[in-house]
What we know:
Blueprint: E1 2-3, E2 6-7, E3 23-25, H1 44-54, H2 64-81, H3 88-96, H4 102-107, E4 110-112, H5 129-142
Parallel strand pairs: 3-4
Antiparallel strand pairs: 1-2
Helix pairs in contact: 1-2, 2-3
Amino acid sequence: MVGSRGQVPKENAVRRNKHESATEISTEAQPGRELPRGLGITTSGAKRFWKTWAESPQSATWIETDWLELEITTKLVDALYQGDLKLAGEIRQRVAKWGATNEDRARLRMKLEKPEEAPEGPSEKQLTSFDMDEELYNKLRAV
């Protein structure tokens, strides 16, 4: 049967585009590596870049060549933060290969495990927006 937009799917349709080679990555925090002092990184932005990627879920699967790429890219990020803006495109291409964005991870067939949610237990009272507004009002009034 043909619908207004092509064939009507079968009742028990099987997806044919399931990728057996997809990489599943745990979202647990990684210990990462320390930033090598020999790199001479001076900007806090580049240091934060290293820390973010070294502790990323993707880094759990990295081998030595991947860490070398991170060192090179961190040097580029350091130069970017020092004002060399023409490096932005090169940096974007490099981090895309590691799965920096949702789109990059989809293209790389990278699947992040969803963390298990903690069981609901006794916790502090959840503040509503009214409570927060009232708290802000009281603080402003006290000034």
